[in-house]
Design goal:
Blueprint lengths: L4 E6 L2 H17 L4 E6 L1 H5 L3 E5 L11 H22 L3 E5 L2 H11 L6 E4 L12 H7 L2 E4 L2 H9 L4 E3 L4 H4 L28 E5 L4 H20 L5 E6 L1 H13 L3 E4 L3 H7 E7 L2 H8 L4 E5 L3 H10 L7 H6 L6 E3 L5 H13 L1 H17 L5 H15 L2
Parallel strand pairs: 1-2, 1-4, 2-3, 4-5, 5-6, 6-7, 8-9, 8-11, 9-10, 11-12, 12-13
Helix pairs in contact: 1-16, 3-4, 8-9, 8-14
Length: 386
């Protein structure tokens, strides 16, 4: 089979991991295929030529756009020029819509197919962008079950491949039997019982960690002041470790690399987690959680004009109802977060009830193997010519 070169764009941390898994699956059957584009350390380790590091283009909210506008424009121009120079056989774009849908418009000038893996959350806001997908994307591969129906409602065919996060969870076969968690009550200080672990997952971007980690740490101290024994452990992504580790150490909080999130969650009784993919990670490990999120008031005010879903946590969105508490913006105070977490920590019955709901979420994510199915679909599309 002919060798191919493919432009791939992963603009933030989770997409970097999913892109790396996809590249490995594609190269398993097409070792002569080469990849280049935007990504981070995982995509580089998978063998892709990173011509634009994802840190150059990653944005977090409307307030970051202006300071980074030149860097983003330079990256867009570099990628467009690379298509003229390298003549890739296709482009694979992952999530990251503010950048990728604009890039897709430029790529439309060239005779290459454009594939989109991991849909932007157009169903939550900016639904008008569906028309941009129709005009600029040749094939859509989605990872949440309701996304296929969403695109079908707008007359766009999308293929559901399942969620790639399942592939990242070690030892996650289709018929996984989840370990039983420690179900002893979380009890007052001084009692003779092992101390339950509370996982803190503050996100992978500096902006969200800067705003959300102090809320988590203060909430932990409030819970401890109410006589609740717990062992907090903060999972930190490499991109934020340097700035956040000192803050945690000053509070006496243990930290772990985000690469060890599975180890932490397999021991955790509960979690405080920033809204995003990490909520699904907790669901896969059967961990009851409280979701929180804070952003700038400008970002929040603009988002409220467009967002039209009742929840923002992915675990609640996949469930189609509220299965774990959310504390967003002005409700994301240490006291309100602690109030939401306290009954979960004190009641084994409540934890069991939440876990039964999380089992429904896991069932809706489909079987493991999303990266392989996505690779098979892309391979078929490119080798058959659509």
């Amino acid at each position: 089979m002919d060798a191919k070169e493919i432009l791939i764009v992963a603009g933030e941390s989770s997409a970097d991991g999913h892109a790396a898994a996809l590249v490995r699956e594609l190269q398993a059957t097409h070792p002569q295929w080469k990849f280049y584009g935007v990504g981070g350390p995982r995509l580089r380790e998978a063998g892709a030529d990173i011509v634009v590091p994802m840190s150059q283009v990653t944005l977090m909210g409307f307030g970051e756009v202006i300071p980074k506008l030149k860097a983003v424009r330079d990256a867009m121009q570099l990628l467009a020029e690379s298509v003229l120079r390298r003549l890739p056989d296709a482009a694979i774009l992952l999530d990251f819509p503010d950048f990728n849908l604009r890039l897709a418009k430029r790529l439309r000038k060239f005779p290459i197919p454009i594939l989109y893996y991991i849909s932007p959350q157009l169903w939550a806001w900016r639904e008008s962008r569906v028309e941009l997908v129709r005009r600029r994307v040749d094939k859509m591969l989605v990872i949440l079950p309701f996304e296929k129906e969403f695109y079908a409602m707008h007359g766009i065919e999308a293929e559901y491949v399942g969620h790639p996060l399942l592939d990242q969870v070690a030892g996650f076969p289709p018929a996984l039997s989840f370990p039983v968690k420690r179900e002893g009550a979380v009890i007052a200080s001084g009692a003779k019982q092992s101390t339950p672990l509370l996982a803190l997952l503050p996100g992978s971007r500096l902006q969200e960690v800067h705003r959300c980690l102090p809320v988590m740490l203060n909430a932990v101290e409030l819970l401890q002041s109410r006589g609740i024994r717990l062992e907090p452990c903060v999972c930190l992504a490499d991109a934020v470790r340097e700035s956040a580790e000192g803050v945690c150490a000053a509070r006496g909080m243990k930290t772990a690399s985000q690469d060890r999130i599975g180890e932490v969650l397999s021991r955790a009784e509960a979690a405080l987690v920033v809204s995003g993919t990490a909520t699904l990670h907790c669901a896969l490990y059967d961990v009851p959680m409280v979701i929180l999120y804070k952003t700038s008031w400008l970002n929040y005010a603009i988002a409220r004009m467009f967002v039209h879903v009742p929840n923002i946590g992915l675990v609640n969105l996949v469930a189609g109802r509220t299965v774990v508490p959310e504390r967003i913006q002005n409700e994301a105070s240490p006291a309100r977060v602690a109030d939401a977490m306290e009954p979960i920590l004190r009641s084994s019955d409540l934890r069991r009830e939440i876990r039964s709901k999380l089992a429904e979420v896991r069932g809706k994510l489909g079987p493991a193997g999303a990266s392989r199915r996505a690779a098979e679909s892309i391979s078929g599309f490119l080798t058959r010519g659509g």
